[in-house]
Amino acid sequence: MTPILRIENNILESFKPLFTGEKFETPGKEKKELEFHKGFLPFESYKEKIQNGKDKNSDIPFILLRYKEDEQELANGRYSAQAVWEIIIGTYKESSDGYSTGLYIADKLKKHLMEYPNVPRKFSVKQDYIKTKLLEAESSGYYWFHKLEFKTYAPYYDCKIDL
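Request: output the structure for the sequence above.
Response:
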């Protein structure tokens, strides 16, 4: 496994204990725990969902961790690297203040990320950049989506040429 994929796994695994036992509304009036995904939501065709007895929006609520980019620099003879990540939070709440559920989840994740670099762990968050945003265009009806962006330190690669 490459270092960046290991960081991705470690980030996602660190989120899961934060929400143990917490349940959130779904379109079917039931409450269920968050689903955690990386990259993209798992694709299941409408036909498969019907055959399996699932609602077309059965993946709500979710946290989706997505790698965006990484960058490596050389300054003053030293290498440094960082990776940019985004988290998409999808929730459902039949209320005009339904956005508050996603904001609650985002704030809990943000607090975790800001505290994370202070203890030895499996990834290190850069504390100079973290951003939360309501995705207004994607949110409609009682479906609410938020995006959280943050950076981590990443491994760098150097060129070793024997002279």
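The chain is about 20% helix and 35% strand.
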